[in-house]
Specification:
The structure is a homodimer.
Chain A (H helix, E strand, L loop, with lengths): L9 E4 L13 H13 L4 E2 L13 H13 L16 H13 L4 E4 L10 H15 L5 E6 L1 H4 L5 H10 L4 E6 L4 H10 L4 E4 L5 H6 L4 E4 L2 H14 L7 H16 L5 H13 L16 H18 L1
Helix pairs in contact in A: 2-3, 3-4, 4-6, 9-10, 10-12, 11-12
Chain lengths: 307, 307
């Protein structure tokens, strides 16, 4: 099975969400950012995810942002909004809303408040969502990010969901960083789109049959990720592929030194000249000024080296 | 400082939420349950908490349940609804709504999706809530339940919140089970209401200057908790106090053998003759039939011994 026959496949940006002075999502800036990401080579935008601070927004704020993006001219087929929250009925409402604006594929966290929940309980939750929505268009990308959700998506659960709802559970975003887990899913579930959350793993995962990536660093180096996606079959000796992969590794290091999301926002603020881009909604915080200075110096050196 | 000068003080039930066949909160049954809990001696109802499955309900469902309870004749001064969710703006909306129906004291989880958040970030979150609501009536009970929220409430954070908002942050529910943490807060923060989440610790905490409890087992043995609250100054040799404490310890064991919330619901279903009480909303699950049988046999033995 080739990568491009999987759905979704390609490079998706776990897009940052710019905030206005009231710490509300800034629609105009976000639409501009989505355009930038697509222009840079992203195949689509995984908005309203962990990187997008979606779990700090109300359901109404999430719905309004998604509507604005579609109204702003971004094709809904290129959007993979996050719609999974702690409350079952809110997950259903957000998913239904996404379908109503023309989106057909969503990224869905498992319910994440209660801990130590069984696979039966998570299966029941996903099952209720699919059944209550009852819309054959719906396609769900599961979301494995145990370091945040504290709720891993087990292979047994994937098997069960695919068995009962084969047309619905089409893939998974794996943000665990555990490459063996990703390749095990590729091997065990033919036709299932495994998307990596850690940028440096895009290349090796594609070579193992993965579908692509949904990453935060794409806010910064979408072009390199897009290059790797197009050329992953090239030899490791290919200079351009080597250079792209090296920049991806380097960029990931750059934004991992301090808090990742705040770092990415600081770099976008610098690129766009819009200081407001630095805002995060509590409980997340902007970087202290000293860290911004250090980061931007490193980012400038990175950009200079990349020319 | 005496226990009764703290606010809130007494025995509060972390009330279970009965669900209808659609797994939505059953308002009529919930109001009846609240009346039962107050009749049994609870000083108030801490509805919409962890035990009440609140984080599995949408904001609209939470608001509707609270309104129904107040419309059903339960005095809002006796209610301590949970209003803290992952999204800042939703926490604000739920808290504002509680104030609008006459409630003045809420139990507020810290934002619980992002992990490894700093005290500065949690402070900023609580601070935004208080400032945006801007209502002097608001009193907040912090909620320390690291095993679920993965976000402990540190003493340094409490100190800071009390310093900046002395009239607002009036107490904490400590569900960690760590008695030393509770007594340390009692000692360090005079006038701050420390409420325990683990029933057997009510007696020792009251003797150290704690304010009371918010517990799940109160759905079952409110009378004993109320007895302990009224008589904690009695001698350890007092037969009635001894018996109440022994029943509390025993009841806690009873509902800790299998999943706690499902166990409590099964026992309430048996007491009321309403099988629907057994329902939980995914990702939580009802007990398997074999466990229900075992539990109810144990519960019957417990009730018989308690006469």
């Amino acid at each position: 099975m080739s990568t491009s026959s999987l759905h979704p496949h390609g490079v998706f940006s776990a897009a940052l969400t710019p905030l206005d002075a009231e710490l509300a999502p800034d629609h105009a800036r976000f639409i501009a950012h989505c355009r930038y990401l697509l222009d840079e080579g992203c195949d689509g935008i995984a908005l309203l995810g962990t990187t997008g601070e979606a779990n700090s927004f109300s359901a109404a704020e999430r719905a309004a942002l998604l509507e604005a993006v579609v109204a702003g001219g971004i094709a809904p087929q290129r959007l993979l909004p996050g719609t999974g929250v702690a409350a079952l009925t809110e997950t259903i409402a957000l998913t239904r809303h996404a379908l109503s604006v023309g989106v057909d594929t969503v990224v869905m966290l498992p319910p994440f408040y209660y801990k130590g929940v069984s696979d039966d309980g998570i299966f029941a939750s996903y099952s209720e969502v699919v059944q209550r929505i009852g819309d054959a268009r719906l396609k769900v990308v599961l979301y494995h990010i145990p370091q945040m959700s504290a709720q891993p998506i087990s292979h047994a659960l994937i098997e069960r969901l695919r068995k009962v709802y084969p047309a619905t559970f089409v893939g998974i975003k794996d943000s665990s960083g555990d490459f063996a887990n990703m390749t095990a899913m590729v091997d065990r579930f033919p036709g299932f789109a495994v998307l990596v959350g850690a940028d440096p793993l895009l290349l090796p995962l594609l070579r193992k049959g993965g579908a692509g990536c949904i990453t935060a660093t794409s806010n910064l180096i979408a072009r390199d990720l897009a290059y790797v996606y197009k050329h992953f079959r090239d030899s490791d000796d290919d200079a351009a592929l080597k250079a792209a992969q090296a920049r991806i590794v380097k960029a990931r290091e750059l934004v991992s030194r301090f808090a990742q999301m705040a770092s990415l926002k600081a770099i976008v603020a610098e690129r766009t000249g819009q200081a407001g881009w630095q805002r995060l909604r509590p409980p997340l915080e902007s970087l202290p000024l000293a860290q911004v200075k250090e980061l931007l110096a490193d980012a400038a050196a990175f950009a200079a080296a990349a020319v």
